[in-house]
Design goal:
The chain is mainly alpha-helical. It has helices at 4-23, 30-48, 58-77, 79-85, 87-90, 98-112, 118-140, 155-176, 181-201, 207-224, and strands at residues 145-148, 151-154. A hairpin with a 2-residue loop joins strand 1 (145-148) and strand 2 (151-154).
């Protein structure tokens, strides 16, 4: 049986050192700030792939969520913590609660998915990789910018998201299912387009919750027929 102490301590033990190290890196431009922020995003997402094998009980998942949420709120509200750890999250020039949405999304997936399930791993990977690709490309090459609900997006960033999501989905579906390649392509393209639209329409970091939800719902329907 897993230890409640491990459940409470593991996510902060993974996140806090990474936040501290990345916050020490000085940046000189919005693009560098976004690269630093998305480095934490990618590290957290990749580490999260192993959480279903450690946090198996609902109480452990909820405890870990509470611990991470408490830490993130402390970083926002306590000036000394914000200065030491918060640069990586809050120096990208916009107001966002993405880190809290990220924690809620991971906890929700952990509660409804079995360890090793593609219904967990694919939403996490699309959120981790495709969302990062959209953010970095959108900052570096803001081709055809547009605004949605007050947020700034670009067609270049959206295309980067869809492309990356499609590649990740093809790779994961081809590896983890026995579907024919033609169906893999169709499912991957549908997931990529729907999550791309979701990312474009989600303001203030809420895409960290809406992207995994859209991925899970689409896969659950297409793979299970319900």
């Amino acid at each position: 049986m897993e230890s409640p102490l491990i459940a409470l301590a593991l996510p902060p033990l993974l996140i806090v050192p990474a936040m501290g190290m990345l916050s020490r890196i000085r940046v000189a431009s919005p693009l560098q700030s976004e690269l630093r922020r998305k480095t934490l995003h990618i590290l957290t997402g990749l580490l999260a792939l192993g959480l279903p094998f450690v946090l198996r009980q609902p109480v452990a998942v909820l405890g870990a969520l509470a611990a991470v949420a408490a830490w993130m709120l402390a970083v926002r509200l306590v000036p000394s913590l914000r200065e030491r750890f918060g640069c990586v999250l809050h120096a990208a020039g916009r107001q966002s609660y993405g880190e809290l949405y990220f924690a809620v999304a991971l906890a929700s997936l952990l509660l409804v998915c079995e360890p090793g399930s593609i219904l967990y791993s694919l939403p996490v990977l699309i959120l981790t990789l495709a969302d990062s690709a959209a953010a970095v490309v959108g900052r570096a090459w803001p081709w055809r910018p547009y605004r949605v609900f007050g947020g700034r997006k670009s067609l270049g960033g959206s295309l980067a998201f869809v492309t990356c999501a499609a590649v990740v989905a093809v790779a994961m579906l081809g590896f983890a299912t026995d579907m024919a390649f033609g169906r893999v392509l169709c499912v991957a393209l549908l997931v990529a387009v729907l999550t791309g639209l979701t990312e474009a329409l989600s303001p203030s970091g809420s895409d960290n919750l809406s992207i995994p939800a859209t991925t899970w719902l689409t896969l659950h329907y297409l793979l299970n027929g319900v």
